[in-house]
Structures are given as structure tokens and as C-alpha cells.
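Page 37, continued from 36.
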């Protein structure tokens, strides 16, 4: 079993460099093995975590360093858990339970967007829950209001219109606001877009960087939280899940 680790004080960060003059992906890149309705595939709640405990711990550390402690955060492709660190989780839960606007400027409001109601209802940090399939309606609701940040945990590989979603998200994000797309090597392969399954890990990260670049985000970076190369057991079994963040700012 992989042992838990901590993030270094200086995270390994590489700056994304634009590679193409125009959006390089076509409809074939986003075809999936299972093209049935996502609302059917996700109709039954899955109260499980999709990355290992070590990755969750590292993600919480990363969020503690980077997410705003007050303001409005959208967790899209959300579920029953958002992996917030203890301080942010406590602030978000307090806001979610509050029935007044008193002290609103100091609150942390988290909005969850997903397609399984039971999972969203079970997430205690969410102040607001939005049921929406981003593959059929690839835009953030007009009445969302301004956002300070957005997160998406190991789900960007399922979006068949990522540029449209991220363009819409940027339009709702305050200047200097940020988006944090969390990447690992786990997925439901029948629902991941085709190109995701055909390329290696580094190309996946650059592909997500392309998504952000062509949807107008700036200062795009790839952050390594865990390279997945720790010691494992027999034939490497038990190695920690790799974990990266591809992030950008609305400048």
C-alpha cells in the first residue's frame, strides 16, 4: 500500500507553451466508446473516491495553498466530496448552513455542478447545487454570478466540448480568478474521450493546457503533485496515484 506523503515547499511547476495556431482537435478526438447518455451512466450514485488516499491528501494541501479562503468557488463535475482541506471545508460548511447574508464578504461559498443529485446532496461544503450535464449543455449558467476560482477533479477527460465549457467558465470568473483542473491516470475508459486513451501522460497534460489556451485562459501552468513513481510492491503494485494540476488565470 502506498504511504502518504506531503507536498514540497516548492512545487514542481512547468509553464505551458502554446503549440498550435488554432484548436487542433476534431470530433473524432472526442468520440467515446460509450456514447449513451451520461445521465444514464451516472444515474446510480457512486460514494467512492476516484484517487487514492495519498493523492487526496496532496490535493488538500494544494488547495490549502492556492484556493481563496473567501469568495465563490465552482466545483464542476462535482460529486459527494470536494477534497477541500479542513479550514476551507469548515468555512464552506458554515456558509452552506447559514441562512443570512451577514458577514457575506468573509464567507466561502462553494457551488457544485454535477449530474447525480444524491451525490451532490451528500456534499456538505456545497451552498448551491446545479444538476447539469456539461456534455449536452456545455456552458456555465448565465445567472451563476462572478466566481473567484473553479475546480474540476479527475473529470476533464470526460468533457466532449471542453473549450466551450472553459470559455463559458472564464466569462463568469473575476479578473485574476483561477481554474484548477486535477488530472490523474484513473478514469471510466468507456466514457473518457477517445484521444485521452490514445496518448501518454505528458501529452494528456499538454492537451488540457491546449483546452485552457484556446478558451482564453492565461498564465497556464502544469503542477506536479505526485509523479506516481514511488516505491510499490510486487511489479510496482501499490505505487501512489500520479496527480497533476493544469491551471490558468483570467487575466
Amino acid at each position: 500500500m502506498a504511504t502518504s506523503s506531503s507536498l514540497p515547499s516548492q512545487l514542481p511547476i512547468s509553464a505551458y507553451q502554446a503549440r498550435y495556431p488554432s484548436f487542433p482537435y476534431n470530433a473524432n478526438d472526442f468520440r467515446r466508446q460509450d456514447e449513451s447518455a451520461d445521465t444514464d451512466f451516472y444515474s446510480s450514485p457512486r460514494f467512492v473516491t476516484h484517487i487514492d488516499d495519498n493523492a487526496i491528501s496532496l490535493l488538500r494541501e494544494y488547495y490549502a495553498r492556492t484556493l481563496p479562503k473567501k469568495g465563490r468557488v465552482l466545483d464542476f463535475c462535482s460529486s459527494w466530496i470536494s477534497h477541500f482541506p479542513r479550514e476551507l471545508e469548515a468555512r464552506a460548511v458554515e456558509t452552506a448552513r447559514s441562512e443570512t447574508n451577514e458577514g457575506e464578504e468573509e464567507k466561502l461559498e462553494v457551488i457544485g455542478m454535477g449530474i447525480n443529485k444524491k451525490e451532490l446532496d451528500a456534499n456538505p461544503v456545497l451552498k448551491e447545487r446545479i444538476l447539469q450535464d456539461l456534455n449536452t449543455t456545455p456552458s456555465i449558467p448565465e445567472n451563476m454570478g462572478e466566481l473567484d476560482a473553479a475546480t474540476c477533479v479527475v473529470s476533464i477527460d470526460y468533457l466532449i466540448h471542453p473549450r466551450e465549457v472553459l470559455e463559458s467558465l472564464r466569462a463568469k470568473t473575476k479578473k485574476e480568478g483561477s481554474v484548477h483542473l486535477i488530472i490523474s491516470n484513473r478514469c471510466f475508459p468507456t466514457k473518457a474521450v477517445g484521444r485521452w486513451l490514445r496518448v501518454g501522460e505528458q501529452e494528456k497534460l499538454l492537451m488540457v493546457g491546449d483546452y485552457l489556451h484556446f478558451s482564453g485562459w492565461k498564465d497556464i501552468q502544469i503542477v506536479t503533485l505526485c509523479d506516481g513513481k514511488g516505491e510499490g510492491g510486487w511489479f510496482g503494485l501499490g505505487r501512489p496515484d500520479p496527480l497533476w494540476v493544469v491551471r490558468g488565470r483570467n487575466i
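Residues 60 and 85 are 5 Å apart (CA to CA). Flag for discussion at group meeting. The helical segments are 38-41, 53-66, 86-97, 117-121, 162-172, 194-198, 201-213.
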